[in-house]
Amino acid sequence: MNDACYTYSQQLMGTTVSLQLLTENPQAVAAVFNTIKALETRLTVNRPHSEVMSINHAAGKHAVVVSELVFDLIKQAKQASLLPNSSFNLAIGPLVKLWKIGFNGHRVPDAQSINEKRRLIDPNLIELNQHNHSVYLAKKGMEIDLGAIAKGYIADIIKLVLAQHNIHHAIINCGGNVLTIGSSPFTPNQHWQVGLKKPFASATSLLGIIQVQDKSVVTSGIYERYFVQDDQIYHHIINPATGYPLNNELDSITIISTNSLTGDIFSTIMYGLGCKKGLAALNERNSMGAIFVTKDKRIILKNQQHFQFHLLDQSYQLCPAD
Ligand code: FAD
Ligand code: MG
């Protein structure tokens, strides 16, 4: 059994991105991090200029032609936004910028500002032209935000970059988005081990270990980016219907899927649905597994054919859903 592991980390996209390889391969490492940097430069809304920002700057004025890659991601994000009962909304940008959760200057905005921004978040007003790859935001002030989806898209691309370097066993972690590639030589059952973080605890405190092979493990939670005001937690997943952070019984939801883009989309959608509706929706979507962590310390496992879970924190109760 090979027990060597080479880990490389960089601060990118406002988080720590880390890559684990089984062999040293400087060319592959450089290709991975250069690809992420190039994609971040195109997709970010946290800098004045990017392809996505050029669309946002032209809102209400004119359409903007973007690269095929950026167009493809926006198209998939729009489709996810229009799914029935989806609280995923790629047009959420004006509200994200208003609340500034996770950034300097976060605060509870006044109700009038929230209502004004809510008029700017209709995904149907994002007009896509497949022929010339142009995107038009029909109202001034609209803003696309791909924060809930871009890391998944990027992780899937990194898998292809690694394959080009003949690497078929690795882990890429884009901060909450873990993509395991192939099988692991480190465990008897050849599964990779991914830690499930304990909400509102130290970064190293784990609720348990998720074991998977060749799967993406994406978590959306309310305990990484939030602030507290008047004993109330305000976290970064915004309910498009109200303009306020989504309020339900969940601390986090983890989606185990084949590709990371799907996991990123559905971790946000399932968070929005909450436990009961989310579990029902996953009956129809049994190609993905899920782990719901509730505020009252239950861990609910769904579609367990896709993963194994080992509880570490006995203050939580394990509740199989099926
Ligand atoms: P997820 O649950 O997957 O998504 C939550 C994020 O999606 C929110 O932070 C918000 O951006 C957006 N969102 C909120 N509500 C909704 C909704 N209803 N529907 C759809 N989307 C919603 N962070 C920094 O601090 N500095 C940076 O410079 C920076 N640059 C980034 C560049 C890129 C290309 C990307 C992808 C992210 C960057 N980030 C940066 C992080 C970003 O702001 C988010 O915090 C992060 O993407 C959230 O990921 P998550 O997996 O924690 O949350
Ligand atoms: Mg997401």
Question: Strand count, sense and closure of the main sheet?
Answer: 9 strands, mixed
What compounds sit in this structure?
Answer: flavin-adenine dinucleotide, magnesium ion
Tally of distinct domains: 2
Instruction: Report the strand count.
Output: 17
Stretches where pLDDT is under 50 for at least 5 consecutive residues are none
The percentage of residues in β strands lies in 25-35%
Summed up, the helix count is 7
Structural class by sheet pairing and helices: alpha+beta
Main sheet: which strands, in order across? Answer: 1-2-6-7-10-13-14-15-17
At CATH level 2, the architecture of the largest domain is Roll
Protein model, in words:
With 322 residues, the chain is an alpha+beta fold. It has two domains: 6-31 and 155-320, Roll (T-fold), CATH 3.10.520; 51-145, ApbE-like superfamily (T-fold). Helix content is 29%, strand content 27%. The chain has seven helices and 17 strands. Strands 1-2-6-7-10-13-14-15-17 form a nine-stranded mixed beta sheet. Strands 3-5-4 form a three-stranded antiparallel beta sheet, with helices on one face. A hairpin with a 2-residue loop joins strand 11 (226-229) and strand 12. Helix 1 runs antiparallel to helix 6 (150-164) and helix 6 crosses helix 7. The protein is globular, with a radius of gyration of 20 Å. 43% of the residues are buried. The mean pLDDT is 96. Flavin-adenine dinucleotide is lined by residues 13-14, 40, 43-44, 46, 87-89, 92, 96, 102-103, 145, 147-148, 150-151, 176, 220, 224-225, 236-238, 240, 264, 267-268.
